[in-house]
Design goal:
- This protein has three domains: 3-269, 2-enoyl-CoA Hydratase, Chain A, domain 1 (Alpha-Beta Complex), CATH 3.90.226.10; 303-481, Rossmann fold (3-Layer(aba) Sandwich); 488-694, N-(1-d-carboxylethyl)-l-norvaline Dehydrogenase, domain 2 (Orthogonal Bundle).
- It is 48% helix and 12% strand.
- It has 28 helices and 19 strands.
- Strand 3 (61-66), helix 2 (89-98) and strand 4 (103-107) form a beta-alpha-beta unit.
- The two termini are 38 Å apart.
């Protein structure tokens, strides 16, 4: 920590905490790039700055602000694997609250986790309108560990605090102001306005958050709330613990509540769930750093074309418009054109009616979209994403047209889910400019994008895909071409194994319940009903002539489709739907039992554990084959796809992270036990056999 009588320029010292002014209002600046995390050096610097200011008779009030792009974004997550080192953050924060002089937080960027806890302990908070606040610790499998669960309810009330702490959601400054978490929004110069507020507070007894009373929640309402949190947490343990700690704030004095909080924080810090969620956090960032592309410059993309405005195309167009691209949507006929435009407008209208968007922003976004019929209008586009009918000849013909229209250097992307992108690229004279950008539905919401390269795709085109995904705020995973790429290929095995379970004795609702208890938001049959059974049926019919006759094939889904049951949209599929609610259907039970009879299987009761273990083993084995074939380069690529595209519970860290924890020998035994019955395609992956034999892991 450095101190001076007059402000000094930030960056003069390498110390992460500086005192830039002392009289009459002191300014403490935290400067620890990239996100001002509270490393040990920051904690020590902050504590000594507060102590120095407390002692300085010329200082009458204090502002805490941060250099760089953000306020403090939390504790330093990288330190969590090591033993805690003094001074501990709760002690530093208590010293801030106890300071005899008024302390004001000046918040820009994100005040998250420990950063939000610092702000909560200050005697007032001024924020830039763009600032965000939150206690996202549960997303790392933790509870706030420096007073967050005890101070937040004292400022915003019990219910709002439980909501924020148990979901980890962040709030923008305007909502924080409404909740009482922020006292003022700055209208220009944040630091100057915070200094003004501090000046106004001189001589006034500081309002200490920890001394405020908090109204208890009615006991019945409180237990209902905890039950609701538990249900939503789908197996994650931190959200419930966080909610229970918040409830303590009504009964315990601050320090006692904080002691309970600290105990829970330290216990969770060494939990498997927290390790998995930390892995998920870093994997989501690491996935964008693709070996070999570090120094490759992406092409500049400003003008984007989207061909086809069906469900996928309209979502893709909205994703680009939301990110500020100039978007032209092209349809091949007038009638499709009108329907596409209506679909896009509808996406925005729904966001306005649910309060997620103002009508002014909707109008602005809609005005960044233009609509045309026919590909010639795409001539000025830097990137074109195709989302037309999933048929090789349709796509090849479109790419031939695009090749004739687009300027040299433009990037041509296909959103195909399964087709061989190499063959699509070969329809052009510029296969190096072609790649897959495989979005997930709804494309404007889902974070995952598979960036699929062919053997011909130029490195700068892959780098362009990554840069575009970053601008879209997506999570991109680079992979090579194979049937279904990473996610849908694994999903196919997941679904097949789920169907084998039906044939052997389980019912759809039992498999779904087991996988929902595992932590997936929905089981595989409920997901099929939501997505619609007809598309997969059409694909199965197309592939039927080439199917291996020895493949174990369960035809219940085909029979459902033959009966016109395409899922929710027809009111029935694997379930029947009454007022949107799914119910098991005796008709489906009948079909499943017939399937068992046809295979001459004596149905048996299958336990939840067996369902979960078999599906997990199927996923891990296929994921390992994907690694063996170098469809992706790293285990984390698979884990990120499964967590972001398919709802694999992040508290398990993804299938390969979890497989390491369970033991690869155990998984291999499970695969070997199934392989003879399940037949071709279910052989153990070579990489799984090798690792299990040598004791190696996916993550060394
Ligand atoms: C906590 O606070 C516990 C306390 O209650 C109690 C303690 C006793 N630590 O995301 P980005 C790195 S728990 C270390 O790409 P953005 C990140 O890895 C913590 N490193 O930027 C990346 O590094 P690299 C609660 C961190 O602008 C770089 O910073 N806080 C941390 O898209 C840039 O990150 C959270 O959970 C950290 N805390 O988003 C907040 N945070 O360049 C977690 C980031 O090497 N952080 N890094 O890949 C975030 O949500 C986002 O990073 C943030 C910026 C919104 C801040």
């Amino acid at each position: 920590m450095t101190s001076s009588q007059t402000p000094t320029r930030s960056g003069e010292s390498s110390e992460p905490v500086r005192i830039l002014a002392t009289s009459p209002v002191a300014l403490i600046e935290i400067d620890n790039p990239p996100v001002n995390a509270t490393s040990q050096a920051v904690r020590a610097g902050l504590l000594s700055a507060i102590q120095e200011i407390d002692r300085n008779p010329q200082t009458e009030a204090v502002v805490i602000a941060c250099a760089g792009r953000t306020f403090v974004a939390g504790a330093d997550i990288r330190e969590f694997g090591q033993p805690p080192r003094e001074p501990h953050l709760p002690d530093v924060i208590n010293a801030i609250e106890a300071c005899l002089k008024p302390v004001v937080a000046a918040v820009h960027g994100s005040a998250l986790g420990g950063g939000c806890e610092i702000a909560l302990a200050c005697h007032a908070r001024v924020a830039e309108p763009g600032a965000t606040f939150g206690l996202p610790e549960v997303r790392l499998g933790l509870v706030p560990g420096a007073g967050g669960t005890q101070r937040l309810p004292r400022l915003v009330g019990m219910e709002a605090a439980i909501d924020l702490v148990s979901t980890g959601r962040t709030v923008k400054a305007a909502e924080a102001l409404r909740l009482g978490l922020v006292d003022r929004l700055s209208s220009g110069d944040l630091r100057a306005e915070a200094m003004d507020l501090a000046q106004e507070m001189i001589g006034v007894q500081p309002a200490r958050t920890g001394e405020r009373p908090v109204a208890a929640m009615d006991a019945h309402a409180a237990s209902a709330k905890v039950a609701e949190v538990r249900k939503k947490a789908r197996g994650a343990e931190a959200p419930c613990k966080a909610a229970e700690l918040v409830l303590l704030a009504a009964d315990l004095p601050l320090l006692e509540g904080m002691a309970r909080e600290r105990e829970t924080f330290l216990e969770l810090r060494s939990s498997e769930q927290s390790a998995a969620l930390r892995h998920a956090f870093f994997a989501e960032r690491e996935v964008t750093r693709v070996p070999g592309l570090e120094k490759v410059e992406p092409r500049s993309i400003q003008k984007v074309g989207v061909v086809g405005a069906g469900t996928m195309g309209s979502g893709i167009a909205v994703a680009f418009a939301d990110a500020g691209f100039d978007v032209k949507v092209v349809e091949t006929s007038e009638s499709a054109f009108a329907a596409g435009q209506a679909r896009i407008t509808d996406i925005y209208d729904k966001q306005v009616s649910s309060g997620r968007l103002t009508s002014a922003v909707r109008d602005e976004r809609l005005s960044s979209l233009s609509y045309e019929v026919g590909t010639p209008s795409l001539a000025d586009r830097d990137l074109v994403v195709e989302a037309v009918f999933e048929d090789m000849e349709v796509k090849r013909s479109l790419f031939r047209d695009l090749d004739g229209v687009l300027a040299p250097g433009a990037v041509l992307a296909t959103n195909t889910s399964y087709l061989d992108i190499g063959l699509i690229a070969d329809a052009t004279a510029r296969p190096a400019d072609v790649l897959g950008l495989h979005f997930f539905s709804p494309a404007n919401v889902m974070k995952l994008v598979e960036i699929v390269k062919t053997d011909a795709t130029a490195p700068e085109v892959i780098a362009t895909g990554l840069a575009v995904a970053k601008r879209l705020r997506k999570v991109p995973v680079v992979c090579r071409v194979c049937d279904g790429f990473v996610g849908n290929r694994i999903l196919a095995r997941y679904r097949q194994q789920a169907e084998y379970l039906l044939e052997e004795g389980a019912l759809p609702q039992e498999v779904d319940a087991a996988m929902e208890a595992f932590g997936f938001p929905m089981g595989p049959f409920a997901v099929s009903d939501l997505a619609g059974l007809d598309i997969a049926w059409a694909r199965r019919k197309r592939l039927a002539p080439t199917r291996d006759p020895h493949e174990r094939y369960v035809d219940v889904a085909d029979r459902l489709c033959e009966a016109g049951r395409f899922g929710r949209k027809t009111g029935a599929g694997w379930y029947r739907y009454t007022a949107g609610k799914r119910e098991p259907d005796p008709f489906v039970t009948g079909l499943v039992e017939e399937a068992s009879q046809r295979r001459k299987v004596l149905r048996r009761t299958i336990s939840v554990d067996e369902i979960q273990a078999r599906i997990r083993a199927a996923i891990v084995n296929e994921a390992c084959k994907i690694l063996d074939e170098r469809i992706v380069e790293r285990p984390l690529d698979v884990d990120v796809v499964m967590m972001h595209g398919y709802g694999y519970p992040a508290w398990r860290g993804g299938p390969l992270f979890e497989a390491d924890r369970i033991g690869l020998k155990v998984i291999l035994d499970q695969v070997n036990e199934r392989a003879p019955q399940d037949g071709p395609g279910w052989e153990p992956a070579a990489g799984l056999v090798r690792r299990a034999a040598s004791g190696a892991r996916f993550y060394p």
